Amino acid sequence: MSELMASLSDIAMFMALIGYVVALLAFAAEQALVRHRTPAPDLVTAGGPTQTAASVPPPSVLVTSRFAPRWLLGTTAVHALAVTLRGLAAGAMPLSNMYEFVAATALAVSFSYAVLAHLRPEARPLGLYVAGGLAAALGWAITSLYTEAGPLIPALKSGWLAIHVTAAVAASGAFTLGAIASALFLRAHARGTVHGLRPGQLDKLARRLHTFAFPVWTFAVIAGAIWADSAWGRYWGWDPKEVWAFITWVVYAAYLHARATRGWSPRRVALIAVTAYACLLFNLIGVNLLLNSLHSYAGL
Predict the structure, then answer these.
(1) Closest CA to 216 of 258, 260, 176
(2) What's the maximum distance between 2 C-alpha atoms anywhere in the chain?
(3) Sequence-ordered list of residues with C-beta below 8 angstroms from that of 58, at least 6 positions apart, any chain
């Protein structure tokens, strides 16, 4: 039964990869159609205000704008199925190695986008970058990080695994969207708008995403320290993963502090957000690949 679950998980994960590629193409097509719309002469409606043909999206744009987010949502469901089947095959939370961690983090990003796009429709254009990043992440996981599903090693047999790693994954999903919004803000700051979004809209999105994610990341760091004390008899040991988790926390704290401090321009604040995300990526991936750490059992 576990072998069947593992095989089904692998198939579903590959289907999710294909789904994200299709979503990327759909969002790219939408942006291309919007970008190449040309203004038309004014149209006067009887008894109504003057309109222009350019203000009404052509049917192709309307179809694509509905198709891309819905396709991405469906792909998220397939991705969630793949992760669930992987957990059933292993008989534990699928968070025990880099393949499972990258797959779970990608799912958190996709789910976070689905929630954000529902609550904030103006954020839907971010789907272009979300789909592209998810396709790249799953492609890398499947081709380079894949590990057969199996039981947890003794070091990971703890209730803190689900608490600590799930919190880190959830925070990473929101941080990723915040980084995308911050990077697009920098572009919009120079160009005026990006994908129809003004700098103020992107700045507000970034603030809300980071404000949500930071307490979750704080909880993940604290839970990790408690787990370390339970497993190794100390809360802090200067392990590279611990150090970079704390560095990431400090840079994100600096971002939020800068936002609340007068005299900091939005551009400089956005640069801190992008820097913080670079620290997050190094902590989540770089440490496992490049440094010797007590967390190496969760590596390749």
Answers:
(1) 176
(2) 78
(3) 33, 37
Residues ≥6 apart with Cβ < 8 Å to 135: 17, 20, 21, 23, 24
Positive or negative: CA dihedral 175, 178, 180, 183: negative
pLDDT of residue 62: 43
Phi, psi angle pair for 196, to nearest 5°: 80, 5
Q: Mind listing the pLDDT tens digit for each residue in 55-89?
A: 444 443 444 467 888 999 999 999 999 999 999 99
pTM of the shown model: 0.87
- Number of CB atoms found within 10 A of residue 44's CB: 10
Strand partners, 42: 52
Q: What is the pLDDT of residue 232?
A: 80
Strands in the chain per DSSP E: 42-44, 50-52
Q: What is the dihedral of CA 178, 184, 186, 187, to 10 degrees?
A: 170
Residue 123 pLDDT exceeds 60: yes
